[in-house]
Amino acid sequence: MNAESRIAEIVTELEQGWNKGDGAAFARPFTDDADFVNVRGLHIRSRDVIGNGHQHIFDSIYKGSRVTYALATLRSLAPGVMLAHVNSTLNAPSGPLAGEHQAKISMVMVEVNGDWRIAAFHNTLVAS
Amino acid sequence: MNAESRIAEIVTELEQGWNKGDGAAFARPFTDDADFVNVRGLHIRSRDVIGNGHQHIFDSIYKGSRVTYALATLRSLAPGVMLAHVNSTLNAPSGPLAGEHQAKISMVMVEVNGDWRIAAFHNTLVAS
Fold first, then answer.
1. CA dihedral A49, A38, B11, B25 (to 10 degrees)
2. Do B83 and A108 touch (CB under 8 A)?
3. Alpha carbon of A71: minimum distance to chain B alpha carbons (Å)
């Protein structure tokens, strides 16, 4: 499978992890030491912290929410490094972000043992 | 000069460009085809668009504003590719962001002809 197809597949894996409310599944495509900046500007680090943090929000403020992710752009930065931008639509039934929200994600993908992983993820709400 | 020192210098160049209200100076450390996602989730592309867009805000909503940038973390993703996180403090005398605001920036740095350039920049306001 080429890089473009595999990275599109990873975007779908993230979406499925979120929509199942499964923090570990959401975090699976990240590298062990991945960096993650969320829509509140909080910077966290490592797959475990990303998984646990998402499980916490899936069980609380984002309980029952659904996301749709669409890969918007993808380009190579260097051998084994790709930059992706993803458009996110979140529908949350309750909590501080109840309703529908658009966000823009930058993801830096790195090739690890012949597969691709997310090394850096940064997410910003699109101002309405 | 090693990568760490040069990238710290580039962070200072960005800060100086902003504080002079000089869009071209702010944009100088970016690659020609750099990607930029701003605090409103707007995704723009290329050094020229980044420079012109910043000149527009320096002359309008951010007129007279000052930023302080501090390099928070820096790590290698691959040969010739570094990931940086920068803490930003903006003081704006007027406009929609009047007052002091913190933000978190992810920057992907690439080595070009023996120097370093910003290939991707993503900025999110830190929720208070």
1. 160
2. yes
3. 13
**Tokens read off for B73:** 């973390």
* CA-wise closest residue to B106 among A71, A11, A42: A42
Contacts of B112 (CB under 8 A, 6+ apart): B31
How does residue A94 score in pLDDT terms, banded at 50, 70 and 90?
Answer: confident
Pick from B94, B107, B99: nearest CA to B15 = B107
Q: Which residues make beta-bridge pairs with A76?
A: A82
Question: What is the reported pTM?
Answer: 0.96
Hunting for tokens 């012949």 — which residue is that? Answer: A114
For residue A42, CA distances in Å to A28, A112, A121 come to: 20, 26, 12
Tell me what ipTM this predicted complex has.
0.95
Which A residues, 89 through 128, put their C-beta within 8 Å of a C-beta on chain B? Answer: 102-104, 106, 108, 110, 119-120, 122-127
